[in-house]
Specification:
This is Beta-lactamase. Helices cover 42% and strands 16% of the residues. It contains ten helices and nine strands.
Length: 279
């Protein structure tokens, strides 16, 4: 039965177009990303959205990929949304550590134990999944905590704990526009993501020195991802989600894709320029 399920998933993947319809001005970028996604012989999903004007591009943007540790963005968002409603505080002690310390450990160092402590305090995976549903974040689901995920037999085609690239970019967009959390919480989250210590060879890897990036990585055996925000020289912010499973040198594929996104969106000027929100 498991073989049949995997076989059907592969057929569905092969049947869909790699490049989704995107902004006409980004057609060349779409082709470049499509070529990059095929060159590593793996399965790569990409979505990018200009938060100032809504222009977007995606490659297999509606294909579910494992979230791995990128789901920690959602954990932080749910906790901060409850801070905004006065139900919690960043200074609350959860166990022997403050929520602020746990979020820092989770987002900066990708601490799995800190994640599960926070997630349990929030009501577990089902509470987070329900919150995503309430905010109409389709294409993203949370089924297990990190410990359960790591104990389970690995199946990179499993739809549990997965997100499509487009769904992840939608989450990032809603967070950035303060639709899920207040501007103060958004600014705090961006600051924490800017200090991420993992995956320096992924989204950040090939960008020009000094490019502002706020991001969160995810890693499993045979899988790598990176999601977050890239700021262009003119101030526009691009929400980005890049997932890669199988193939070879996944971090380099992520880095090359991020650089292509940076160059492609940079070449598309909007006039008059409408920069993204300035936190």
């Amino acid at each position: 039965m498991r073989f049949i399920a995997v076989f059907l998933a592969v057929l569905a993947f092969l049947a869909q177009p790699a490049a989704a319809a995107s902004s006409p001005s980004l057609f060349n970028l779409e082709q470049q990303l499509d070529n990059l996604s095929r060159s590593g012989s793996g399965d790569v999903g990409i979505a990018a959205l200009d938060l100032s004007n809504g222009e977007s591009v995606s490659i297999r943007g509606n294909t579910p990929f494992p979230m791995a540790s990128t789901m920690k963005v959602a954990v932080a968002a749910l906790y901060l949304s409850q801070v905004d409603h006065g139900r919690r505080s960043l200074d609350d002690m959860i166990g022997k550590q403050s929520a602020r310390h746990l979020i820092d450990r989770m987002m900066i160092y990708s601490d799995n134990h800190a994640t599960d402590v926070l997630l349990q305090d929030l009501g577990g995976p089902s509470a987070l999944d329900q919150w995503l549903r309430q905010h109409k974040l389709e294409g993203m689901r949370v089924d297990r905590n990190i410990a359960q995920l790591l104990r389970a037999k690995r199946d990179l085609w499993d739809r549990r704990d997965s997100s499509t690239p487009m769904a992840m970019v939608q989450l990032l967009s809603k967070l950035y526009k303060a639709e899920l959390i207040k501007p103060e919480s958004r600014n705090y989250l961006l600051d924490v993501m800017a200090r991420c210590k993992t995956g320096k060879n992924r989204i950040r890897g090939l960008l020009p020195f000094g490019t502002p990036v706020e991001h969160k990585t995810g890693t499993l055996n045979g899988y790598a991802s990176d999601v977050g925000f890239i700021t262009l020289p003119d101030g526009r912010r691009i929400a980005v989600a890049i997932f890669a499973r199988g193939g070879v040198d996944r971090p380099r594929t992520l880095a090359q894709s991020a650089r292509a996104i940076y160059d492609g969106f940079k070449s598309v000027m909007t006039w008059p320029l409408r920069p993204a929100l300035n936190p």
